[in-house]
Amino acid sequence: MNTLWWQTVGTGNCHLVLLHGWGLNAEVWRCVSEELASQFTLHLVDLPGFGRSRDFGAMSLEEMAERVLAQGPDKAIWLGWSLGGLVASQIALDHPERVQALVTVASSPCFSARDGWPGIKPEVLAGFQQQLSDDFQRTVERFLALQTMGTESARQDARLLKSTVLALPMPEVNVLNGGLEILKTADLREPLAALSLPHLRIYGYLDGLVPRKIVPLLDAQWPQSEALILAKAAHAPFISHPAEFCAALMALSQRLN
């Protein structure tokens, strides 16, 4: 069986698995990994089909979650950013006994706008899917630019994201399309309402992909979860506000222990 690229650093008692977002790879966490490795045993993963885990084709959300969990520690805080938040959430739903806490970062249980639910218009995601086959690299770059828009450090944050993508071979088009399909169709709002694990949701106030309007809606649906909104952050809060991001995770770890 193919194995995912997986790196473990740090010697903390608490295991923390970091799952990246669409089109990217685990290098995106380098801006916070040194700080986090001083407190956690940190697991950096390239999701199936992405980065150094390119030997995998497109997968469903459930398949991706199972594949990642197969290499995971027995018990950990599972943190997912954006698309990775759906993967981490699916793991928490399917195998709660392996999850100490769930952390979702700039992620939504339902990325697509639906009746009365704020999100990305499905036709926008469909447009990205169409454009992938026309101009692959430019489409990925446009999507990355959307993630930092509005922040004070938008230009340098976008450069960092772009360099993370370009540092490794690009994912296959079918893998990127599969990821967009998950973003377009997944809806975990109801299943996650029944989750009794500790659940921290971190948002960027300026996020153009995961609108802050979902925060009070989920507060009402998921009273057992906790939300943190970083006022000047957009879709990549750990890049624009690494100190606040790390502090939130360390505070969570102290509460769990």
From TrEMBL:
Q: Residues in domain AB hydrolase-1?
A: 15-242
Q: Where is the active site?
A: 82, 207, 235
Enzyme Commission number(s) of this protein: 3.1.1.85
Question: Which stretches are annotated as coiled coil?
Answer: none
Q: Which UniProt keywords apply?
A: Biotin biosynthesis, Cytoplasm, Hydrolase, Serine esterase
Q: Does Cytoplasm appear among the keywords?
A: yes
Family as reported in the entry's similarity comment: Belongs to the AB hydrolase superfamily. Carboxylesterase BioH family.
The protein here is known as Pimeloyl-[acyl-carrier protein] methyl ester esterase
- Species in which this protein is naturally found: Leclercia barmai
Q: Which gene does this sequence derive from?
A: bioH
